[in-house]
Model the fold of this input.
Amino acid sequence: MEELIKVNDIKVNFRSGTRTIRAVDGVSFSIGKKESLGLVGESGCGKTSIGNAILALVPIAGGDIFFNGCNLADIKKRSEFMNYRKNVQMIFQDPYASLNPRMTIGSAIMEMYNNENEMFQMAAELLRTVGLEENYINRYPHEFSGGQRQRIGIARALASSPSLLIADEPVSALDVSVQIQILNLFRNLQEQYNLSYLFISHDLAVVKYVCSRVMVMYLGKIVESGPIDMVYSVPAHPYTAALLSAVPDIDAGLSARRSNKRKSRIILKGDIMANTGHIEGCRFYPRCIMAENICKQAEPPKIQIGPERWSCCHFAEKIVNIRVPACME
Amino acid sequence: MNSSTNILEVRNLKVWFGKKNKPVKAVDDVSFVIPADSTVALVGESGCGKSVTALSLVKLVPSPPANYLGGEVILNGRNISAMSEKSLYKVRGREIAYVFQEPSVALNPVVRVGNQIKEAVKLCGGGNADDEALKLAEMVGLPNPSYTLRRYPHELSGGMQQRVMIAMALASRPSLLVADEPTTALDVTIQAQILELLVSLQKKMKMAILLITHNFGLVAETADWLYVMYAGRIIEAGPTENVLAEPLHPYTRELLNAVPRLNTSGTMQGIEGTVPDLACLPSGCRFAPRCKYVKENCLKEEPSLLFNFNRNRSVRCFYPLADEGILKNGRIN
Done:
């Protein structure tokens, strides 16, 4: 598959007093054309920082980002950079905070463009595309519901004809019945506009609805990655397994009730370790139910367990219970 | 359901806001019961009235702006809705205790958490506050209790803060714990920890739990009974397995169909439209404008609650989805 964006060992740091927080600590992945990649993890794992790094909203402290083969670090001219920005757009989590309350939604959508005649036509068409009425173009954000505002945010992102959309928790703030409408919109738009997505969320089920591949993140690193069906049905990392078992699921809950047993679930002990300073060994070690001595001492290698599937755990193969053929690395 | 084993009985609760000529009917004729030792869930989307219902049990919403217009709340056999403010004060935090969504907001940021727990203990006349606080901290699984109790809220993670809130709520050994979206603000692995804690505490302390949530997965796993709210009314109720496996109300079914699941495949449909404005409700059934199965009379007349023969399932609809021996002629409210 042609790579649209390739991220190579990027690092993002934040300073907190005298300490450096390593929010993203060496992450690599790529997204192909018309591909949707999910990024899941809990709060503080660094997933938002990855999105921000790709958007060049925060500087990267190491590594490279390649877009269509060009290294972003090589872009010196502002015009080239603005071109990159047009190609990579973002949908934000809070529909109430991401629209300027003093701009009509039409102006917000067409802020990038100068030609007035074209502007209105294009804005109207974009509104139609996201399922809103054309005549809303002169209304203000406060006149819309959360779901509608999110649609406006999507229309705005599409205005520059991007090839990659980064959606950071785009439906978390919405009610259940509205969420699915927006998720369906994401699906349809991908077909219509040949879009690629980096879909960031803590909600594993939502990610599954939109994405074909998923990366699981923990404390600044990707711990597992692969086709979403496989990762969810046979996780290859203890954290993925714990995440999956923690999700309150209607079907699982009902079958547990019927069999009169509590749903067996992996409960993680304790809290997340700090991601400042040097971490020896596996960063999931303190909470892992499978942890052994090697986990404390040595950082787990990236183990390939299938085509386009890998896991950073000393016991990845044991968890998945397969034998890796000798020809794979 | 044997009424002598109900910790809580709510009958025809009505709490409106706003002006008399244009009221916001937040809680409109709501009735439900909570049997002893059970977990009952009150489910609905935002704006349906579930939080106001929970707070109204002990009139926690100040009046004004709330108008407590009617209904009865019977707790452990006593009618607390008729009580004076002075008497009600003694019920709050004692027989009924609350745990809210945002522990970082509910905790006093300048007081050590241990002292906040002790305050709760002292307010309900518990014994030695220091000992009690330690005991409660252990009960809720706070690691290293004597160290943790000396921390300030901001030094604790979200999950630990919520455990502190639960400890405070348990100080009086309440008969009923009301948890309003207790895990929504927490990460999913921490959420699982807190839910396990609530379930085990319920068994140990023989306590009933009223769980307010919009998450059907949580309901499936933890609640014995389920009440679904829409636009200020209860529109369906019954044992969790029955309601979730075979919903009777179109709204319940559409809502369940709109929840992405871990093993989903295929396309799901949402519900057209939005919830009605509680200040200008449509005539007829409140869900009718969005209902796929709407018929003419649905828009003119509002259905009342219908019960099945066992009286353990009810639905507010003229045309419930499955005919489970629903008493169609009995207009029981």
Q: What stands out?
A: The first strand of chain B starts at residue 6 and ends at 18. Confidence is low (pLDDT under 50) at residues 329-333 of chain B.
